[in-house]
Amino acid sequence: MSLSVRNARPADLPAILTVLEAARGIMAGSGNLSQWRSGYPAESDILCDIAGEGGFVVLEGDRIAAYFAFLPSPEPTYSIIYEGRWLDDTRPYHVIHRIASVPEVHGIFRTILDWCAARDGNLRIDTHRDNRIMQHCILSYGFRYCGIIHLANGDERLAYQMPELNSHNKEEYPPMHTAEHILNATMVRLFGCPRSRNAHIERKKSKCDYLLEACPTDEQVAQIERTVNEVIGRHLDVTVEFVPRAEAAAIVDLSKLPENVSETLRIVRVGDYDACACIGAHVRNTAEIGTFRILSHDFEDGRWRVRWKVTEP
């Protein structure tokens, strides 16, 4: 079942407290016996988040499976950092606090981080030294360790910041955006053309332009649709990695990136089928995309425009 994010409400408090208790159990089970052991986060912390419109829940269907706070800067405890420095200490940022989830639902951390990154690329987060699970998740998503901060009570936390990526002010519909990656790879494989030179991706329907010598035949159009759906049907994992731009050149085509692209690139992989530098939102597995359908197409002056959509899985 797909996951979604919405603002937390006061009526959600009992379910959120259940999630927090489940998270404490996960911490204890992994050897983290000292974090969240003094009544933190308390009901008052959650209600404060909600009152400030900074508390959010992750839903699995109608069920609350996770909670987190997404708060704008400044974070007072981040004003001084020891044994290191912030990657960028000049621009406004958002901080992610109080991530908690139930153990049986997977993909929550990435859902939260994708949601946050779509709203602010300058993210900070901290965690307890004994919270090995969270440290792994934070670093795997692409954060960089910056140093040690101290909470108001004096406890230390390991602090991380997301490397600067190019701005991205539009949140795509993840199934459509991931389908675009598969369509691009399919066009490159079948026709030897570049990836789409122009794309307009929306929830209801999308369009992509490709540079071709001739208009694809009806048989070729059917083959494109069939191939994309075959890839979707393989249930490939969609993964993210962050690499220096110099290393990314050996993985993906960087020719379409702007000259002022950041030094750290976010590479999105669709199984073994496609790899692309991208900072948009994607599904976790192609099983979440649905069925790809070509609606119409036209050809003019070497430009083939295809209009398409995906239906709910």
Question: What would you say about this model in short?
Answer:
The chain has 313 residues and is α+β, with helices and mostly antiparallel strands. It is 27% helix and 30% strand. It is elongated and about 70 Å long.
What does this structure look like?
This protein has 313 residues and is α+β, with helices and mostly antiparallel strands. It is built from seven helices and 14 strands. The protein has helices spanning 13-29, 43-51, 108-117, 132-141, 174-191, 218-232, 245-248; strands at residues 3-7, 55-60, 63-72, 94-101, 123-127, 144-150, 156-161, 198-200, 206-211, 238-244, 264-270, 274-277, 291-300, 303-311. It has a seven-stranded mixed β-sheet with strand order 1-2-3-4-5-7-6. A four-stranded antiparallel β-sheet has the order 8-9-14-13. Strand 11 (264-270) and strand 12 form a beta hairpin. 33% of the residues are buried.
Rg calc: 22 Å
The top-level CATH class of the largest domain is Alpha Beta
Profile the largest sheet: 7 strands, mixed
Uncertain parts:
none
Q: Specify the CATH homologous superfamily of the largest domain.
A: Gcn5-related N-acetyltransferase (GNAT)
Query: What percent strand?
Result: 25-35%
State the domain count. 2
β-strand number: 14
Structural class from helices and strands? alpha+beta
CATH topology of the largest domain: Aminopeptidase
Count of individual helical segments? 7
Q: What does the average pLDDT come to?
A: 90
Order of helices and strands: EHHEEEHEHEEHEEHEHEEEE
Shape: elongated
